[in-house]
């Protein structure tokens, strides 16, 4: 069906698709009901070809590898011959559709032109609550996926433009806050419909064969770029490992991730065979997420200007043993996937560092933690779960200090503003600041973690999923470790108490909660840091005088 157009048309259509993705993203953000959409922006929008392949990547690379897996499943279950204009499919199933966890709902619609399938439009977005054992659905102590909420394999929400009202009602009935869930879901349907209309117009303007040929050409160009970049790496094989504090259930048992990265004859192999078996708690991953971690690390190492497409897959092999923490089988829970992905990326980057030492980087602070305040007062309960995703800091590299107080690696999302949180929920954020001395010392300093201190003004259940309170982010080449994370109750008082990095606890009104994200690891010996940089660190308040390295 495709034909290869000239290079100008290819670039024009690529840019039109990129602009469409940005426009879809903007409209979904502006139509969001829940804070996780309209503030945190934990969602993506995508355009794929008829096989589900991405030629123009959305902002969240962690979603990039999910779309193809999900669309392949839709085609397997429903068949391309049964697709109609106006169809909309819905899925949130990690095992049936490759979604990251149950709280992420994907909305997928086919694009047809002259009754021919030319592509799909999709959106994946976190939902404020899809049922399950705890408010917000994302329990760090879940032991099977059925405790995490309603499970939807790929099903039709709309057939030829007509909504399945019964299914719509079932979804709403399984949420503690159906207005927020269904409002966000309707926003996804709206932007996906907009996307199908725009791509259909492109096919009418340029021809479906030209559109398909342009996407194929972009995929082929991406494959060529990645192949050339990989060819610059020396051949060899390196291994690294790292540990999560726990799986959230067995609090005293770390979880091992191991990566062996090998390069031979222009092919890269990521082998995770040394990783632990899948866990009881919700930190085990599905293969699409592992693939996203590999590409994120690879692009960072090779060249950040490289753009992910599904064309880059052809020279990459990924080994994930079935039943392991990197290839879970049902009914393993999945809600704490992000902390696991962050640790896995650190391990991959450490293993890849020797291939290109000038691009090597120390461990980041990982996920700063995902928190949910489930308010018990009915007045506030109706507003939904106060759900926030916090940042941490990047590790230092061979040429620069790590960035401070940011979401790292796959997160790439926004922190909820203090003004929004305080205006909508009964809490006050008393401190929001970088933590001095939290970055690992080194020739280049790790980024500083961030503190967010809450005073709750009403009784609440705190649901927290974090990591790195026991096992601090590692430094590199003689650099020091970053400071570990901390979750504290009543900080600075005789009642001060540190909680585990994954927990659920009931708080009384007036309780103060400190969430301190980990700092990034340092790079190189601290004694080698330039005195001028040390003085600047002290002046900026990043490092205290007694912790600053070297003579002053």
Structure characteristics:
552 residues, five-stranded antiparallel sheet, alpha+beta
Whole-number count of domains: 2
End-to-end CA span: 70 Å
Q: Spans of 5+ residues with little confidence (pLDDT < 50)?
A: none
Mean pLDDT over the full residue set: 93
Work out the helix count.
11
Structural class: alpha+beta
Radius of gyration: 23 Å
- Shape designation: globular
Q: How many runs of DSSP E, i.e. beta strands?
A: 21
Main sheet attributes: strand count, strand direction, barrel closure: 6 strands, antiparallel
**How large is the share of residues in beta strands?**
15-25%
Helix content: 25-40%
Strand order of the largest sheet: 1-4-3-2-5-6
Short summary:
29% of the residues lie in helices and 22% in strands.
Structural overview:
The protein is an alpha+beta fold and 552 residues long. It folds into two domains: 7-224, no CATH class; 361-552, no CATH class. The protein is built from eleven helices and 21 strands. Strands 1-4-3-2-5-6 form a six-stranded antiparallel β-sheet, with helices on both faces. A five-stranded antiparallel β-sheet has the order 15-16-21-18-19, covered by helices on one side. β18 and β19 form a beta hairpin. α3 (61-78) packs antiparallel against α7. It is globular and about 70 Å long. The chain starts with 6 loop residues before the first helix and ends in a 12-residue tail after the last helix. The mean pLDDT is 93.
